[in-house]
Structure formats: C-alpha cells, structure tokens
Automatic annotation (TrEMBL):
The chain crosses the membrane at residues 37-56, 68-87, 150-172, 231-254, 269-289, 296-317, 329-353, 365-385, 397-417. It is a multi-pass membrane protein. GO terms for cellular component: plasma membrane. It comes from Amphibalanus amphitrite. Residues 1-420 form the Major facilitator superfamily (MFS) profile domain. InterPro entries: MFS_dom, MFS_sugar_transport-like, MFS_trans_sf, MFS_Trehalose_Transporter, Sugar/inositol_transpt, Sugar_transporter_CS. Residues 431-456 are annotated as: Disordered. This is Facilitated trehalose transporter Tret1. It is found in: Cell membrane. The keyword Membrane applies.
C-alpha cells in the first residue's frame, strides 16, 4: 500500500525534471521559447501545485485518501497529453499547469495516506520512499531527455501517470479515515488485512481516536494552541525545503552546467546529478530510520548552504574573467554535495514530517495550507531565478540561497520537535500537554503490538 501511494513520486519527479531536458529543445523548436518564456514553462508546475494544494485537503476528507489519489491522476494524464501535442506556448503552459496541479495534490495526499497505513516503527522509511521515487522520476526525465524529443518525453511521463492510476485503484482505504466516519467494521477489516491476523488491531483502532478526531476543522480552529505549534513547525520545514533552492538545481540543471562551461556535456552532467539524487535519497531512507528528524534536517540545511557558497565562488571567479579551467569539475562537485545534503534531510523527511506532526483533527486543512506555502515558495524561486541571475549575477543568486540555508539551520535546530519512534497518538499528546514523550515509550508499545504493529 505504501508503494502504491509513494509511486506518485515518480510522475512528480518527471514533472519537476522535465524542463531541464526540454527547455534547450524548446528554444530551438517551432514554438521558439525565449528565456523569459522558459521561466514561465518551469514555474507553471509549482504554480499549479500551490493552486491545487488547498483543495486536496478537502477532497481527501470528503472522498477518502484513495479516491483523492485516483482523482488526481486525471489532470496529470490530461496535462501531459496537452504538452505532448502542444502547438503553441499557451497550450504548453496549460499542460504544465495541469501537471503541476497533480503534483501539488500528490504531495498533500500521498504522505498523509502513508502515515495512516503504516506503523510507528516503519513510518519513517516508508514515508521517505516517496522522495526516493520522486528522484527516480527526475533521473528518468534527464536520461530520456538527453536522447529523446521533448514531445516523446512528455508522452512517456503521461504513460507513467496512467500506470499510477492503475496502482492506486488497487489500494485499500485509510483506516483512520474510515474510523473518523464511523465505519468501524471496515476500519477493523482494513487494519487486520494490513497488520496480519495475529496483530492487536483493536488497540490500534482505539488509538485512532474514534469519536474524537473527525478530520473536519474550520480555519479559525488553527489558532488553538495545540494546533498552532505543529502547523508553524510544518510551515517552517516545507518552506525551508524549497527555500534552499532545490527546484532551481532540478529545473535548471542543464542550464547551470552549460553556463559553468567545462568539457562535460551539460545534459550528461545533469544525469550525474540525477543519479546522485537517487543515491543520496536512498541513504536518507536508511538514515531516517536510525537517526532523528531534527538533526538530519539541520545537517541538510548546513550542507546545502555550504555547497551553494562554493558554487557561487566558482561563478564569481568565472564572471571576473579568471581562468577556471583547473576547477571545471567544481560546479558538478558542488551540485553533488548539495544533493547529498538535500537527500539526507529535506528530501525524505519534509513530507513525512508533515504527515506525522499535524493532528488528525486539522490534518486535511493544515496539510493543504502547508503544501500551498511549499509550492508557493517553489513558484517564487523558479520564476525569479533567471531575473535574479541578471540582476545580481549567478554568484550573488547562489550566495543568497546559501544564506537562507545557513540561517534556517539554526532555526531548525532551535525549534523542531523530534518525532522518530513515536506513534501518531503520542505526537499529538505532546502538543496537547506540552510534555515530550520519549521514543523508547513508542518503541516498547510497538514491540508489544499495542498500536497494532506486527512484532519483530
């Protein structure tokens, strides 16, 4: 069930990586896309995501998590069809906007679904798989884009979205959603199917908070103390994830390497960066199971910031006319380190943390708000990247994002609440009472099966 939901990261990655491969071709195509229009092509995905994200919370509460996943596959397929057969810039932008809407919807619903069908012991690595599949989608986009036409790449992306539609139709409903709607017999049967016949599903069913958490909440309720802090921490993490500049590296990888020069073909360098993202995120999936969310996020912010400082130094030397032939490898090395830092923290943890920390009563509303800010930040960084390069130079742009990362590392270390090893109920109790629950408490409960987990 986790795989069926997290496979949605694959079409998300294809949408994010598409412009890196397609933009150089679009500039020479009959559409004659200019640099300014290229910024629009890139920014349509985050724009569509931020417009769709607030609707996703309401949809997954009214229809259920599984039905919401099925529904979001439709604009993804339609959007890729429009891109494939685009005869004008307007049609191309509309197609990108629809695929972006599917991206935003996915990043709200999929992490929520994963957090609700897995146990506390497995929730970390299971949730992190979403980012791993996202990066595999980015890599596939880079590889296919090097050898195939931009229309063929769009057609392949649409086919992957259609495959995901098939997978999610075969998944089960969220037991939490069923319990919230009073469908206890279905929730019990789903838990028994997920956990196994010998699991203690009755205690997990009780821990879901039946009769307390309806999943419905008004915007005014977010001002309550027990909701304010988890929402604020979620917003901090999701804004930092995009504020570090990850989508600049993803969307414009080929352009960055082309501007840097060097002997390696820019599209080949982009493929190496995509391979790095997959490898480092795989490390992140392992790390999130054995290390805390808080130290990994802080380390991620420091590493990404430091690598952007070095990348900015290279472009500064190049722009001032100094000979950089001896360090032509530095841009690729800087991007690889950046992706390493992102892969151990912001990549696998951001959406997982959102699914963990938001209370069930407000999760549908608050997750939509969080993803709105997440993709709103992405939209601004993507749209302003090329204008910023023109205004303050590439070096100044990378240094600006480096400052955001390094300042963010301090804020994350001082404010985040650790959630590793805790059940969703224990995380909620922490914000209700203001007292921390030790992870060992959660682990001991998990081993006894009191939250319905399989033992061993």
């Amino acid at each position: 069930m986790t795989f069926s939901a997290t496979f949605g990261g694959f079409p998300v990655g294809l949408a994010l990586g598409y412009t890196s491969s397609a933009l150089p071709q679009l500039r020479d195509s009959p559409l004659h896309v200019t640099d300014q229009q290229g910024s629009l092509v890139g920014s349509m995905v985050p724009l569509g995501a931020l417009l769709a994200a607030p609707l996703a919370g309401s949809a997954m509460q009214a229809l259920g998590r599984r039905s919401a996943l099925v529904l979001l596959s439709l604009p993804a397929v339609l959007g890729w069809l429009l891109v494939t057969y685009a005869g004008s810039l307007t049609v191309l932008l509309l197609g990108r906007l629809l695929t972006g809407a599917a991206v935003g919807w996915t990043t709200v619903v999929a992490p929520t679904y994963v957090a609700e069908v897995t146990t506390a012991r497995l929730r970390g690595p299971s949730g992190a798989v979403f980012e791993l599949q996202l990066n595999m989608g980015v890599l596939l986009s880079y590889v296919v884009g090097k050898y195939a036409d931009w229309r063929l790449l769009a057609a392949l992306s649409g086919a992957v979205s259609a495959l995901w539609l098939l997978l999610v139709t075969l998944s089960c409903r969220s037991p939490l959603w069923l319990a919230q709607r009073g469908r206890l017999a279905e929730a019990r049967a789903t838990l028994r199917w997920l956990r196994g016949e010998l699991a203690d599903v009755e205690s997990e069913l009780a821990a879901l908070g039946t009769g307390r958490a309806t999943g419905k909440a008004a915007l005014s309720e977010l001002r309550r103390q027990e909701y304010r802090l988890p929402l604020a921490l979620t917003l901090l993490v999701v804004i930092m994830q995009q504020g570090c500049g990850i989508n600049i590296i993803t969307f414009y990888a080929a352009d960055i390497f082309e501007e840097a020069g060097g002997a390696m073909d820019s599209s080949t360098a982009a493929i190496y960066s995509g391979l790095t993202k997959v490898f480092t995120t795989a490390l992140g999936v392992a790390a999130v199971h054995s290390r805390g969310r808080k130290p990994l996020l802080a380390a991620s912010s420091v590493i990404t910031g430091a690598s952007l400082v070095v990348l900015g130094v290279f472009f500064r030397l190049k722009d001032t006319g100094q000979d950089v032939s001896a360090i032509e490898w530095l841009p690729l090395a800087s991007v690889v380190v950046f992706l390493l830092g992102f892969g151990i923290g912001f990549g696998p943890i951001t959406y997982l943390y959102m699914g963990e920390i938001l209370p069930p009563d407000v999760k549908n509303l608050a997750s939509g708000i969080a993803i709105f800010f997440n993709w709103g930040t992405s939209f601004l960084t993507t749209l302003t990247f090329e204008p910023l390069e023109d205004a303050i130079s590439p070096a100044g742009t990378f240094w600006m994002y480096a400052c955001l990362c390094l300042i963010g590392a301090v804020i994350l270390q001082l404010t985040l609440v650790e959630t590793r090893g805790k059940t969703l109920e224990q995380i909620q109790q922490h914000f209700d009472s203001g007292k921390d629950v030790k992870p060992s408490d959660a682990s001991s409960q998990d081993s006894r099966g009191s939250d319905g987990a399989l033992k061993g």
